[in-house]
């Protein structure tokens, strides 16, 4: 079996017997790949091994949700079957645990004093479904805990702001809204003080 490759722009195009097999990132097989394979099955096994190697390296650098890792592997040009095999194997081995990652990520964002809407937006940008985001945030963030976060921020970060001055008060409200706290919640905390 004849396997050739050509580098075109930022991709490596792999040809099997003169037919385009796949267009991939050079990060998958390397800049100068050596395809020492006898048949298509061996080529697919090589693709699986290289995809697994990339995924393990990526996870060793940073914990990720399977959706985020799937997107990275898809952007590399790996086949859907190789991606799904790799993800299921990583989950089986315990290297990829979506529930654990979500719990850790949400707790880390809460410790950064971010509100519900900011955390929800970050999760959505990582490809987490809205219903799963809401369920998770409802588990960790009650209105009481968010009120405590706002009070803590008012006592620390915004302690030098004069909340009796309408302009400074509006600046604090806007800053808290950017942190993901609802306007109603911020107003209720400010009225308590």
Lay out the secondary structure:
Layout: E1 3-8, E2 11-16, E3 19-24, H1 26-29, H2 40-61, H3 66-76, H4 80-93, H5 98-111, H6 116-125, H7 130-140, H8 143-155, H9 166-178, H10 183-192
Antiparallel strand pairs: 1-2, 2-3
Helix pairs in contact: 2-4, 3-4, 6-7
Taking strands numbered 1, 2, ... along the chain, how are they ordered across the largest sheet?
A: 1-2-3
**Domain tally:** 3
CATH topology of the largest domain: Arc Repressor Mutant, subunit A
> What class, by secondary structure content?
mainly alpha
Number of helices: 10
Mean pLDDT level: 91
For this structure, the quaternary state is: single chain
Gap between N and C termini: 77 Å
Give the amount of beta strand, in percent.
Answer: 5-15%
Name the descriptors.
10 helices, Arc Repressor Mutant, subunit A, 3 domains, 193 residues, mainly alpha, 9% strand
Explained architecture:
The protein is mostly helical and 193 residues long. The protein is built from 10 helices and 3 strands; from the N terminus they run βββαααααααααα. The protein has helices spanning 26-29, 40-61, 66-76, 80-93, 98-111, 116-125, 130-140, 143-155, 166-178, 183-192, and strands at residues 3-8, 11-16, 19-24. Strand 2 (11-16) and strand 3 form a beta hairpin. Helix 3 (66-76) runs antiparallel to helix 4. The longest helix has 22 residues, at 40-61. The radius of gyration is 24 Å and the shape is elongated.
